[in-house]
Amino acid sequence: FYPGTAAKRLACPDATGANPFAPGELAGKIVLIDRGSCAGSLKMATISEAGAALGIIGLVDGSAPFSFSYGGGVITIPAFMINLADANTIRAGGVVRFSPANALSLAGTLASTSSRGPSMNENLGKPEIGAPGASISASSGSFTGTSAFGGTSGAAPMVTGSAAILRGARPSLAPLDVKQLLVNTANPDVAQPSQGGSVFPDQVAPISRIGGGEVRVDRALFSPSFVTDVSGDLGASAHGTISYGYLDVSLPVQAYVRTLRVTNTSRRAETYRVTPNFRYTDDADTGAVSIYAVPSVVRVGPGRSATVRLLTFINGQKLRNNLMNAGSQGAAIGPLTANEYDGYITFRGDDHTLNMPWHMLPRKAARVVAINGANGPTDPAAGAAKTLLNVGVGTAQLQTFSLLGVSPNIPEGGRGEQMPNPDLRAVGVNSVLDPGICGAPGGNFIWEFAFNTWERVSTPVGQFLEVDLDTNQDGVFDYIILNRDLSGLTTLTDGKQVSAVLRLAPSGAIAATSIRFFAENATNTGNTILRACGNDLGLGLADAGATLVNAEFYASSWYFGGDADFLGPYAITPGGEQNITTLAADTIDPYRAVVATVQEYAPIPGTSEELGVMLVTNSDFGAENRGGATRASETVLIPKTGTTIGSEFTIPGL
After folding, report:
1. CB atoms < 10 A from the CB of 295, how many?
2. In what order do the strands lie in the sheet with 254-264?
3. Most exposed: 110, 487, 544, 637, by fewest CB within 10 Å?
4. What is the total count of domains within the chain?
């Protein structure tokens, strides 16, 4: 039975707590209820009270069914959740046979709500271990009462309890050794659905969802040894997994060495055969990543330790193109899974096995340098050629902006201080004619604003990169253009970042919001490009080169707080960019070059003097390549004639 009104389909009590159903209205029925508006437990309690025999919550999006937590109400009937496709079949009046006899065990499978790594910004291998998250738990203050409890908050105490058991049984182990032992002895045979919205586990889960696997405290209790990464970097200090992190790969072959230590706590010698393994055969088949254990067989005496080195070679030419962006893709799992490589380093003994999970996020990277020629003089008819050479294995994808300003590097907060202090390095502006996106009669322009920050971030989620505009120069800002989550100004859902135009009331309050573009960001980058239609800013083609606008640029973290950075104010006008670059092509293949002709124009009276060209080399040109370049070359700053950009504004290296 699917109720006929919107209120009854949600089955939420009203503001007074009243049930939308009359007593007995649902007597003996199997009832489908839509997800949303109130807790799942309240929905099931509501239909229970109305006499339903069984309740089903139907999802309203493409996510997978999950175990919902208790949010109130008394449930006296069985309750289930189904995906959107199955729910729509019932909503359309289709016949569905629902039988416990057809149940599929989900033991050893991953819940859709489980954590997903790697960690933000540092790209460390997370999570490091998993555990059952759903259980019948004791209810606080109820003496003998119990209730269903699920989620990551249910899995965490399972691991905590395992650590307590292990620590109590083997008190000589240091806390980090306890953690490592649990990771090494976990069960890696964890499956997940391959299709979004499904609960049927038909593929192994990636390391970035399970780490070592599902905790097995019995194996940890009796394991004579454990394996630790002692490479001496941030990844090793986190313990648990081998974290290569995010890697710019611009060379045909890049080599990395990591050091593992196997510690034998028993009274007998142990011999291990060491084998690197990939989690997915399609990753191994690319031939892009090769890992060798040296030695491949190691003997560890009683109470002793031994080291094994991992020689890792990455062939940048065989890596997939970057498939991730922080705009239209957001936190999409598929592109991340395609770009990451993972697996286990297996230490196989005579009667036991230790697994050390490894994870890396390598990206095929361009590396662009400007190698000759000066910018043209202020005579726009002159112009001068500059050669842009790509010495990396990735394709450079180019956009150019007139450089408005630069800012020196300032320290960011330390780990755990919750003060990331987003730090601007350079900002630029560009104007293009509207190809028909803006919907303005007679045409309009699109204003583009480029931000480059000193520190890269996995995604700009949680921070604002914004330009505040005073379009009539009366000293009061009229518009703000910033990145934000598609779902809201300070909300977090699927991570899709948009370029939002906020129209401000005289009081400074937001009067209206316009969104026409996703923010452009290739992930793990310092570059973000925001766009706005002129008509959304109260400007038209007649304002190009004529109307002066005051602009101030900011970078801040709305999620953590801390210091913000600032550049400006600048007086600009649409179409009044002083440094215009014409490219022979907007892409540069590996080991190829293109010619860029830079025209320098005199400032329009009243506008601020601009510094040169801001060249972005990791632009998002579509699904086949979302952009990738080395940190030092993803934004190339080219000063105009007679201007110097000091070394304090330069990122060392290439």
Report:
1. 13
2. 225-229, 254-264, 305-314, 289-294
3. 487
4. 3
Q: Using one digit for the tens of pLDDT, what is the confidence trace for 500-539?
A: 999 999 999 999 999 999 999 999 999 999 999 999 999 9
What's the CATH code of the domain at 77? 3.50.30.30
Give the model confidence (pLDDT) of 163-195 as tens digits: 999 999 999 999 999 999 999 999 999 999 887
Q: Maximum CA pair distance of the chain?
A: 87
Strand (E) or helix (H) holding 321: none
Quote the CA–CA distance of 98 and 32 in Å, as a whole number. 12
Determine phi and psi for 125, rounding to 5 degrees: -70, 110
Last residue of a domain, one of 102, 135, 170: 102
Question: Do 270 and 298 form a contact (C-beta atoms < 8 A)?
Answer: no
Q: Which two tokens stand for residue 552?
A: 């101030």
503 sits in which H/E element: strand 497-504
279 SS3 class = coil
Inter-residue contact 33 to 47 (CB < 8 Å): yes
Three-state DSSP state, 318:
helix
Is the pLDDT at 377 greater than 50? The verdict is: no
Q: Give per-residue pLDDT as tens, 15-49.
A: 899 999 999 999 999 999 999 999 999 999 999 99
Q: Do the domain assignments include residue 110? A: no
Q: 132-136, 163-167, 634-638: which range is least confident on average?
A: 132-136
Look up residue 78 and give its two tokens: 């069985």
Are 538 and 638 contained in the same domain? yes
Residue with tokens 């045979």: 189
Facing residues of 629 across strands? 366
Beta carbons of 635 and 614 less than 8 angstroms apart: yes
Flag whether pLDDT at 380 surpasses 50: no
Taking CA atoms, 24 is separated from 5, 78, 340, in Å, by: 17, 17, 54
Instruction: Please determine, for residue 603, whether its predicted confidence score (pLDDT) is greater than 90.
Output: yes
